[in-house]
Design goal:
single chain, 606 residues, alpha+beta, Aldehyde Ferredoxin Oxidoreductase,  A, domain 1, Aldehyde Ferredoxin Oxidoreductase Protein, subunit A, domain 2, six-stranded mixed β-sheet, four-stranded mixed β-sheet, 26 helices, 42% helix, 13% strand, binds tungstopterin, binds iron/sulfur cluster
Amino acid sequence: MRGWTGRLIRVNLSLGKYWIQDIDPLILMNYIGGRGLAIKLLWDELPRGVDPLSPLNKLIIATGPLTGYPGPNTGKLVIAAKSPLTGGYGDGNIGSWASVHLRKAGFDAMIIEGASSKPVYIYMDNDKVDLMPADDLWGLDTFTTEDKLRRIHGSNVGMLIIGPAGENMVRFATVIAQRGRSGGRPGMGAVMGSKRLKAIVIRGTKPLPQPADPALSRIGVDADLAAKAKQNYGFWLKQGTTATVEWAQEASVLPAFNYREGQFDYYDRIGGVMVEKNNVTTRSCPNCVMPCGHVVKDAEDQLSELDYENIAMLGSNIGVGNLQEVAYLNRLADMMGMDTISLGSALGWAMEATERGLIKDGLEWGDYKRAAEVTLDIAHQGSELGRLLGLGVKGASSRIGGGSGGFAMHVKGLEVSAYDCHAAPGMALAFATSPIGAHHKDAWVISWEVQTNRFAYSRDKVLKVIELQNIRGGWFEVMVGCRLPWVEIGLELDWYWRMYKAATGMDLDLEGVANRVYTLIRAFWIREYGGWSRDYDTPPIRWFKDPLTKGPLKGAKLDYNAYQQMLNWYYEARGWDERGIPRRSTLRRLGLGFIEGELSKVIELT
Ligand code: PTT
Ligand code: SF4
């Protein structure tokens, strides 16, 4: 096959052994790579009901057939496993040189299984893997760990690292690369920690696989040039995703005070204009034509890399209206190795619980110093509050009760990304049906929604959500490139279809692949949950019950019955029944007939 290496490397940490294996070409054709390959491997290889933090869980690192080739933003990888935060399928898409090095080492993917009895890190040099002792790295933050590993292995390597949060199995611990890339929101860092795996260091020096058409490089370079020629390119370089703060304020979707409101009085002190003024440098993933990591000095005069979600969740959502303070909390999260979205949500939830007298010795809105203390407590699991919040808002609210579930902002256990949906039913549906829980990456429909009829609960809106899910979750997550050239500066999708064809020699069946991957992920959740309920596909109750109390959309809230009608349309369009279970006919049409037997052991199929 062309475009793929056709091989994966399997490392078993319990046995201290590794194997090189061919990947069935049919699997690559049907699932392509990234998330597609990851869910196929997890479905096939995980025993049903496995504890996500046990040695039986497997961590999949998967690239795609364009990874590393010239072309817009081809330096990312998917990291996936059964999630300890949600109990279902979890993944993240992270920019790291590890992606390019893995391909240059001759592999499309790595599977990590078992668990080491002592802290280790993987050092992979092309076909050879060594498990290196990591006792002196254990307990270190991600920045210090990266510096130490670079001193040992030089700069021509790619790395994926966990911090204390991952080691201590904080449920929303992520994997960090390049001091500010963070991936795997549903606890992929905790899975690494449970395996006592501190880091993965990869050095690949072989040529990338031969593409089907040598014109691939030229097409990729032309696509880069086309991206740079886009009208919005110059503005993007100045503010990147952080310009979204001002847009979200204007649209009343900027989460404030634990999603009680959609606007924040001090938004201009933490927004894109402020970031631009304070920007000291920018950082990027490999092969990026449009760097988005905006670095500013934080409250301790250290460098911190910001994106929109970090600012909204550690700023407006917890009442902090100062960019340097937000940046400080963000840097702590990067160093500790935990997700800023979930952290901001957990802190916001704890602030509200404190206000309501449900938590003693908690924290007040806007108190960034106390928020920083609690952040470190979560990472180190060093106090009762730190241990509570380290469970995520779903786990924490079910532990303390007292009605605190009513303001726990999550779907399926994953904290909601930074878009308030009191007045955005389409985005609420996108969050509720995202295949990993409430992440915006699969369908950021909100920008389209606020420009059209934002209050409508229409079939058109449902179909728009699915169209976006299929492109974002079913293409960018399986071919594993960054979607921002398309989303943010309008690079035409046709460039990607041409690059895919040149790399693999095949035409892309987007609908087929996306539906197959979405449906298999749905089946995985059902299998792991031992059943299903429509409640799992319903957004947080707050958006239905507590209307916005101020701003131009004062009084807005979601309508439960109208939402349920949208969910019916959604299921119907995906070929799932009214319970959200894929129909037998859908499984067969998508080439997923092989899961019928196992799925029907846990639920009756229609
Ligand atoms: C992504 C999520 C996001 S999405 C942000 S800001 W965003 C937060 N960033 C964090 C961070 O930083 N530090 C930290 N400790 N935790 C963080 N949690 C949050 O993580 C990220 C970019 C961004 S920045 C976005 S939109 C796009 N996301 C993509 C995606 O999901 N898929 C894809 N094919 N391309 C994408 N391109 C963009 O990538 P998760 P990254 Mg990330 C400081 O991984 O788990 O999906 O979480 O990977 O390399 O950092 O790129 O306004
Ligand atoms: Fe990475 Fe941002 Fe470039 Fe995408 S736009 S490849 S996330 S630096």
